[in-house]
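This section describes the prediction task in plain terms. A model, or a person checking by hand, is given the sequence of a single protein chain and must write out its three-dimensional structure as a string of tokens. No templates, partner chains or ligands are provided. The sample shown here is typical of the held-out split.
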Amino acid sequence: MEPPTLAQKLGTTTHISPLLHKARRLGLGPRELEILAAQRGCRHYSNGAEPATPLAAPHDFSDAELAIALLSPALRYDPHSIRCGAAMLSAAGNDPAQLARMAIRERCSGVVRYVAEAGLRFEPENLFWKLLLESLPASSPPRSGVLPHPTRFVAMTGFTRHGPGLVVEWQRPSRTRSKTHDD
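The expected answer:
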């Protein structure tokens, strides 16, 4: 029996995803998409066993495509994939308008809106989140309990160099990447 898709968990119809077809042509199934996110700098979601050679070059499958693929309702339901997608969404160089167009095409604008609203809550001065939200259509909130709680998209610590205190940091890919493929 096939695991449910994110769409099924959200109570919507699973569509045929052109982006996930492209990923499959590149040899990127659900697990490989997560590995690629870790290879592209999502160290927070790495298990440390990812191969050194990137599974796909950025010119073949961009960070924006990776983010939207991981958030696609046509993908099998996995909160880990959603958290990886949330991190990749805010990768340096991603264009909010392009992300919104891709999200609409992939029928995940509600999921992307949910992540962007969380991003804006934790990073209210980050213009990226404001622009992304402005580019997305209005949508109803997703079914409660399906998407990870917004705190799962951040790292929190209760202790700083100066003693007790809350520090919250949005999880996004680090700029350190493998140099095996040309960017």
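For orientation: The first strand starts at residue 154 and ends at 160.
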